[in-house]
Amino acid sequence: MALFGRKKYSLVSIKKKEIPVGLWVKCPDCSSPTYKKDLASNHFVCPKCDYHHAITADQRVNQLLDDDSFVEMDHEMCAADPLEFKGPKTYQEKLKADRKKTGLIDAVLTGHGSMNGKKIVIAITDSRFIMGSMGSVVGEKITRAIEYATREKIPVVIISGSGGGARMYEGVFSLMQMAKTCAALARHGEQGLLHISLLTNPTMAGIMASFAGVGDVIMAEPKALIGFTGPRVIEQTIRQTLPDGFQRSEFLLAHGLIDMIVARHDLKERIGRIIDFTHS
Predict the structure, then answer these.
(1) The domain 55-278 belongs to what CATH superfamily?
(2) H-helix or E-strand containing 207?
């Protein structure tokens, strides 16, 4: 039957227009959708709740260093398979898959460049590569970068975004990287040189228990998860309810583990000012 001379349409029969995939990003914290280009222009910080999305090592370089100043170090260094690790995927299969996914050879990008005209060494772990975990390559690359900074008498900035800690696929070879990186930083510090450690979401386990936790200045992005063992494991072990915000940046600042919380928009200015104070 016609209504006012017009054909009736069923709402069910009207198809919704398809929205192209990948144009919007849902915030893990507040669930608000943000247009991907708008999120990128805002340094991948949610405009609704200030949640700091994970970003890649390359994006960190572009945000923090002066244009065209970055020179990568030890690009071709590859992991061995000392344990010939077996599982649903072998270690070599896992490495190959993550290299293809990320474009990285391993979980850290190291190099030197300038920040506001001051030369620095920078190392950035990338959580997309086996959760940013530390094996022999990550430890060796970070150690070599620190030793270069010591020879050149320049600051080191290490940005940690690693939820995986020491890499189980390499056993004790990965654990020894904790001591090796810290020893290199100790020698760096003996020369009166600066180490700034930036903790991002997440920074956990062997990473936090080694180079990430021994900065002269330790700063963190807002709401970053930081600790050794995750809160759920701790609750199950001690059979107690943990305080609200436990192991988040704000909780750790209030309890003295870190020195400051810095929003991503302000990182380059804040790090640059600290370098100016100490290496003028």
Answers:
(1) 2-enoyl-CoA Hydratase; Chain A, domain 1 (3.90.226.10)
(2) helix 205-208
